[in-house]
Amino acid sequence: MLTAGSTSAHAQQSERKVRIAKIEIDSAYLDAYKATLAMHAKTAVAVEPGMLALQAVYDKAHPTHVTVFEVYASEAAYQAHLKTPHFLTCKNGTLKMVKSLELVDVVPIAMEIKPVLAEHQE
């Protein structure tokens, strides 16, 4: 049974843009790419109201295979992200580092994250 609050939350979630980027990095640039991506993610989440989440990981067995998970409040928020100075700096600064890029729009089934207290973070 849906309540008014859950209907509103469902409408907000259906407007979200959720995307996965599958990226292969040239091994010669891996450390530089990871540093650039980490700074970009931190900045994007801090300054963009429509950037709800940006998480990046690499495959332990294949460190040059990077996966980025992005959640935007809307398509408009995603389009605004593409025009930000920090995105353009990251994108243009890493062009020679990226061997391949696949962007996949996805639909969430469940996205649960437990809040972590600052003193428990490493």
Automatic annotation (TrEMBL):
Statement: the UniProt record of this protein carries the keyword Protease: no
Residues forming the ABM domain are 17-107
Keywords carried by this UniProt record: Monooxygenase, Oxidoreductase
Q: What is this protein called?
A: Antibiotic biosynthesis monooxygenase
Q: Name one GO molecular function term.
A: monooxygenase activity
Is Membrane set as a keyword in this record?
no
